[in-house]
Amino acid sequence: MSSKTRMYSSSSPSRRSFLTSVATLGAVSTLAPGFLKAQAANGLVNVAYCGIGNRGEQVIKSMQATGLANVVALCDTDMGAPHTKEVLGLFPGAARFQDFRRMFDKMGRRIDAVVVSTPDFSHFPIAMLAMSQGKHVYCEKPMGQSFRQIELMMQAEHKYKVAAQMGNQGHSDANYHQFKAWVDAGIIRNVTRITAFMNNSRRWHGMKVSGRLPKQAVPPSLDWESWLATAAEHDYNVGYVNGEWRSWFDFGNGALGDWGAHIFDTAHEFLELGLPNEVVPVVIDGHSPYIFPQASTLAFRFPARGSRPPVELTWYDGQRNLPPLPPEFAAPVADPNIPPPSRGSADAKVLPPGKVIYADGLTFQGGTHGSTLKIIPESKALDLAGKLPMVPSSTSNHFENFLLACQGEERCRSSFAVAGPLCQVMALGVIAQRLNTTLAFDSTTRKIANHKVANELLAGAPPRKGWEQYYKL
Question: Who has the most CB within 10 Å: 71, 97, 185, 271?
Fold first, then answer.
């Protein structure tokens, strides 16, 4: 398509158009005998990017750096705003859209994969429509806004046989391969306790609100109706957009949803933690029904799994809510590959995000993303130096892994089947923060047994009129 591309905006496609599109393209995946592979004629994966500014810009550059992706479409609800201009300049020939529904209507057959870097609450409808049409999906973390959305996304990955990767990039780096090798070799065994922490400043620190923000005029570049997607109706306010959505229970998932997937993801997968049977808000400082607390300590209690003992994972956020650390804890080193915060502070005086894992006879200190574990104290590390297993190098980074999975050459390391339960753990934590109450979760019935309102929050907010269909794909 030429640089004089048409931009579609505002008016949503008809329900008939939507359902016809899903029925026609979705049938391809149900008829396919196995996994759907991208079939780009030039050997590249034809990619549509949803969310092209802020974090989206970083994801696009990393995806394109693999040399495996061909950009066919760009979609952003605030197309032409300052934060979108660099990407627009990099790909002048790509089709442009403000509404992902129009993008699928007009270009669905040209798209192999969709990359979703929009705010947390709008991941779900884009990913569900893409998967229902047999498109592979790369979705930034966390996968969805609610426990139910995440459940449906896992089901869709399986139903439509697509490659689906969540964007916790460390899941393809050294920490991933080391953690797996050390568990397989019995170096990490019988873990009973994990401390995870993220104590940098966040957007909502210092905020005081008594309700929703007042109505402001919608900027001419922004399609507010499409930005809201399935979320409940809100009047526009600049305090909701460009990262500010992270502060609000209605739109974001707080420090836990933002960072948990980078800190305890490998522990969750390789220790097979699954879902907790109890979540206890030990500390909630500055509780609000609208924005995330100024600090929180949450205890997630996971039951025994076969021969593995129960595990208590304790999460700490808030600038002054520092975790108790073992005396041997070494000076942490922040992973240089972590993207800088778009707002807030990564103050070097504050404890960098990380974790401590207490296992049978050994204690492990770790950071975030791809940073590797170290055994503490150093004397024990020296004793074990010759007994540690070889750790394989990664065959691909997280973006290459996804695109190779689209082509049937690798499996997604953070597939929705793997990342989904991790995100559901965090979704339960967000409910505990929101209500400031202990949750008793029954993994068999997948319900919260002790609190009616909390149980209702598993489903999330009801979708706005006209957006119900994404829950039926």
Answer: 97
